Amino acid sequence: MATDADRPVARFLAPATVRLPYRPESVAAARRFVTAKFREWSLDDLMDDATVIVSELATNAVKTGCLTRMLVGVRRPSDRVVRILVGDGSRSMPVMVETGPGHTSGRGLAMVHKLTDGRWGVTPLPLGKVIHADLTASAPASR
Q: Would 60 be classed as within a structural domain?
């Protein structure tokens, strides 16, 4: 019979989700939420990248103009993977665009792509979508 000591530590780290309104100030709330979870999980080395990622994804969700819901979540699918999720009620899929040096916007998904080494994606839902972005933890999850 397997004991708690035989199971990966990440299974003991509870996932967290928060529902936020579609307002610009929700981007800061999403950053605070992710920062708190990363501190709880002792992932300080990933915190800067995580806050940039959630900022970009939450900003995109706010810009959709959808008013149904925005969810921000953090998961540990394994000891080495930390997943940031942002869900919104828009069925419009994100598109990574090429921007020139003079553009002041449009770089968000390119930054997410770079920070995650391309480990991000979109899951369409009947009433919206969830974008996930995975970061690699350097140390196994702690309790």
A: yes
90-123 per-position pLDDT tens digit: 888 887 666 555 555 556 898 999 999 999 999 9
Question: Which structural domain range is residue 90 located in?
Answer: 16-136
Q: How confident is the model at residue 105, as a pLDDT?
A: 54
Residue 76 burial (CB < 10 Å; 0-12/13-18/19+)? Answer: buried
Instruction: Tell whether 9 is covered by a domain.
Output: no
Rg (CA), the chain: 16
Separation of alpha carbons 109 and 15, rounded Å = 24
Q: In whole angstroms, how far apart are CA 23 and each of 68, 87, 136?
A: 12, 14, 30
- Is the pTM here over 0.85, yes or no? no
Which of left, alpha, beta for 86 (phi over 0: left; psi -120 to 50: alpha)?
Answer: beta
Is residue 129 within 8 Å of residue 90, measured between CB atoms? yes
